[in-house]
Amino acid sequence: MSDKATLEINGEKHEFPLVKGTENEVAIDIKTLRGVTGGVTTIDPGYKNTGSCESAITFLDGEKGILRYRGYSIEELAEKADFLEVAYLLIFGELPTQEQLDKFHADIKKHSVIDDDVKKILDAFPKAAHPMGVLSSLTSALTAFNPSSVNVDSEEDMYNAIVRIMGKFPILVAWTMRKKKGLPLEYGSSSLGYVENILKMMFKHPGEDYEQNPILVNALDKLLILHADHEQNCSTSTVRIVGSSHAGLFASLSAGISALWGPLHGGANQAVLEMLEAIKEDGGDTKKYMAKAKDKADPFRLMGFGHRVYKNFDPRAKIIKVAADEVLGDLGIEDPILDIAKGLEKEALEDPYFVDRKLYPNVDFYSGIIYRGMDIPTEMFTVMFAMGRLPGWISQWREMRLRKEPIGRPRQLYIGETSRAFKAISKR
Ligand code: CMC
After folding, report:
1. Measured in angstroms, how far is the CA atom of residue 346 from the centroid of ligand 1?
2. Span of 23-32, 338-347, 377-386, 387-396 with lowest mean pLDDT
3. For residue 61, what is the DSSP state?
4. Which residue is catalytic, options 221, 307, 325, 356?
5. Helices (H), strands (E): how many in the chain?
6. Residue among 170, 162, 224 at smallest CA distance from 395
7. pLDDT band at 138 (very low <50, low <70, confident <90, very high)
């Protein structure tokens, strides 16, 4: 293969280098495009063909269903590592030694506290507020209480901002849920593991000890690992682009949380459960909803199906499907919603519409089912996704800063009015 791509515009040829990634992916480097062509730009809505950066964090191959963090397969990480180890791997590039992991955890624990005034902000939200809005606001508000995390220029500043947010974020997640459930706010315990602590902060009842259930710890650990990074998706690109203006880590994360909220992205796990519930309320007729999903005149889509990148199967969905069966089996949960989910899955996998378009269940088809089994309110599902994605966002933000990437500023093709004279209001 040639190492150049040639572009011909109005009879003039321009050459652009082809660059290869470590997995042999090929990209046309168009950094000089506008300069050499006198301002010609590219148009790529949704960035379906555009690489926004070079990254050494996550590799995925949507055709083959491969997902690797820093070279390690998601299957192996989900089986052998815990969430904090994976967070360290993503952020710093290598699996930690025991000593490195202990130090990372100890530094995080030092910051597992939140200024009491943040409670007043939380209190001011109506109970009905969507937890993603609350989480995004509180994450942004943390900037005011931790001003040293705003201007981060050295690696040391970055490290401090990272362990701060790794310590504080689970508290915000837990408090957001407790507010929703009307429970008093709780802190965790420094003797617990990172994931055990999240569970305790979320579920401890006042006046009672919280007993850890290893099945739930294992399921949450896996869920968080599976969601931890997914290269340049909508929320991660948001974190990178906000961070590229040198806005601080917390502000960048807050923007990422807002991006994740949407039902086409992280909000899909909530949308899946709401869809399953609606089907149940409507008599459980899955065929009717399959028909709606296929009808182009109907805006209804089968939530939890399809993926921008995975076009054969979502490797995360495979792992999580097994975990879902384990959790529900072990907890002895029988849920009519589950039967509807299984029915839809079976029908979609055999339906030519879904098969031809390569629409398979994605990770969010199953994650909501587990969260429901864990007694997490439906509106909190996307918050749990954010909890898992935190180390991914952090690692992408850190990489962007260390590589000294320029400010993100896409171009456009203007299709509006050309220059025209102003018309006085009386003449319009
Ligand atoms: N139900 C019915 N039809 C669908 C669906 C669906 N869930 N997803 C895609 N299609 C159809 C779509 O109408 C189009 O048909 P046609 O070619 O006839 O016009 C074709 O499949 C291609 O769809 P697309 O919208 O061009 O694909 P995309 O890559 O732009 O969108 C997606 C990917 C995930 C936004 C989309 O599949 C979708 O809306 N899925 C439901 C929402 C969902 O589950 N999102 C979670 C994604 S995984 C979590 C995450 O990473 O955030």
Report:
1. 18
2. 338-347
3. E
4. 307
5. 18, 6
6. 162
7. very high
Residue nearest to atom 14 of ligand 1 (CA): 357
Among the options 82, 221, 314, 364, which is catalytic? 364
- Report residue 118 as tokens: 């943040």
**What amino acid is encoded at 386 in this protein?**
A
Q: Is 199 helix (H, G, I), strand (E, B) or coil?
A: helix
Q: Record the pTM.
A: 0.91
Q: How far is the CA of 302 from the centre of ligand 1 (A)?
A: 8
Local structure of 116: helix, strand or coil: coil
DSSP state string for 1-58:
--SEEEEEETTEEEEEEEEE-TT--EEE--TTHHHHHTS-----GGGTT------SSE
Report the pocket of ligand 1 as residue ranges, CB < 6 Å: 230, 233, 264-266, 268, 293, 301-308, 357, 359, 362-364
Active site residue 130: no
Whether residue 366 has pLDDT greater than 90: no
Residues 76-128: tens digit of each pLDDT: 999 999 999 999 999 999 999 999 999 999 999 999 999 999 999 999 999 89
For the record, the structure tokens of 15 come out as 């050459």
Q: Is 364 a catalytic residue?
A: yes
